[in-house]
Every structure is written in C-alpha cells, then in structure tokens.
Amino acid sequence: MPLDPPIQVLLDFYNRIKPPPGLSIEERRRLAAESTPVLPRSRRPPGLRVDDHQVAVDGGEITLRVLRPEELDGPGPGYVFIHGGGWTSGDIDSAESECGSLAKEVGATVVVVDYRLAPEHKFPVPLLDCLAAYRWVVDEAPQLGIDFGRLVLSGGSAGGNLAAALCLLIRDNALPMPCLQFLDVPALDLSLGSPSATMMDPEAWLSGADLAEAVGHYLRTPEDALDPLASPLLATDLSGLPPAVILVAEYDPVRDDGERYARRLHEAGVPAAVLRIVTHAHGTYGIQGTLTAGLMRDLRINALRRAFDGTLIGSPLPLP
Asked: Per the confidence metrics, is the pTM higher than 0.85?
C-alpha cells in the first residue's frame, strides 16, 4: 500500500501507538479529538458573526452553528456541513474548525450540524436530526440571509453518508433542493457490499474491520444496512437529486461506494463527478504536510464558487 510519504510516516507512527481493542466510546471520542491537529484546521477568521441555535428534535434538541461574513448584505449563498467521525464522534467545534473558514473564503453563510451520536442514538436518529436541521434552515433562510437557490449540502465520511441520505429525504419531502451535494469519502453502502470494504489491509489508516465496527455502532440491526436511508447507494430511485461532487481515496474501504454512487447517479440522469486521489487513505489528502492538502482545499473552494454562480455545469457542446 504505497502511501504518499508524509502519510506513510504518520501511519507508521499511529500503528506503533495504536490504542488497544475494547476501548469505550468515551475513550475513542477523546482520542479522536486529540488526533484532529493533523487535519487542516483553522482558527476562526475575523469578520464573522457566529451564533449557536438550539433546534428541537424528537426526544431532545441539537445545536446548529451559523457563521456569516459581516460584509454580506442581503441574501447570499449557504453551505450546510455534516461532520464525520464514524457516527460516534465529532462535535460542533471540530466541524467548525474543518469548514468554518469557508464562510470568508467563498462569501457564504455556513451552518454546521451537531447531530446526536451513536451508539447512544442509532439509525435513523442522526439522520432525522439532520433533517430537522435542514428544515430549520429552510424556515429561517430569510433571517439567515441564505438564498436557497445557492445552497450546498456537504458531509465527510459518516457525514457524507448522512448528507446523501438527507438528499433522498429532501426530495421525498418536497423540500427545497440544494444546488450541489459535496460528498467527501462517503460511506454509502453499509451492507459492506463494495469490494474495497473488505480488501483494505488491517493496518490501513481505516481498515475494513474499522468500517464494519463503525457501522455496527450506527445500525440497530444488520437488516438496517439494506435501508436506502442507511445505504443511499442501494436506493432504487436516485432521480431528482442534486448534482454531486464526490471525493474518494485509493486506499479506503469506502472508495468503491463513492465511485459506484456516481455511476448510479449518471444512470438516473443526475450530473456527478467523482475524483479518486491515489496514494492516499480515508481523508488523508487533507492532512497538513502533503502536497494534496492545499490543492484539495482549492478544489473545494472553486467547486463551491461555481455552484453558487451557476457555472458548475457548463453549456452542452453543440452537436453537428
């Protein structure tokens, strides 16, 4: 598994200090929080208005954080982000540090979703939290200064799973559709039916066994894996969904999920682009110290700008 050299150094180090099996969820969350400095986190840039909002959900409430550039005047673009963490970790602060600076970089109102985590809250609770968050954004769009014709829905890893499933719920509930779904290393077939789900080395950055364990924490029963809202790739109908940009990594157990999903979207007449980043593992192309980190951030920023100004999909070529 010839990884990008800086990533190989990190992986070798990780495998020397790998935590023992059987850790509690609380310990796993603590270790996940401690590992985030290797990711391209950024301090909150100046000139942002930041507000936390409590949104009622079935059985409780969740927090949404809204970051809006002070110079925005009137309705503008919006970006709703759902964080990853294997459905069991991640929070609103880590989500902001991952994407909050986009508010200034692309001139958009950013909304990050702090959904409830598994295994305390199993499928479909995290997804229904995201649906409640999206409904709140729809209702509050005038006050938030969001033009719904220029809204992007995004998620990474488990968040990519939730974002793709949320698009199905948005369509089926006749809610305003985002103009783009941006899915970063998404897990889209929780039946683990993709070849890549079982071919990854046990000492990979994210192994097939790691993926299976995370899925086990999220789902109530193995049968849930066949539910399209848990496995959007298995949905019989993908028509009417927004265009998709999907990023996958060569050495990732969910690699084939993203590539298979793009083909399914094409079959349904939905524009989609999938980019495979070779010599990288699950999300490692965003780690500081790699050549890819800045390039992938530029790609994200430019994809958002094109989605917001309507140029993501160009005019069809004239036929003779």
From this structure: yes
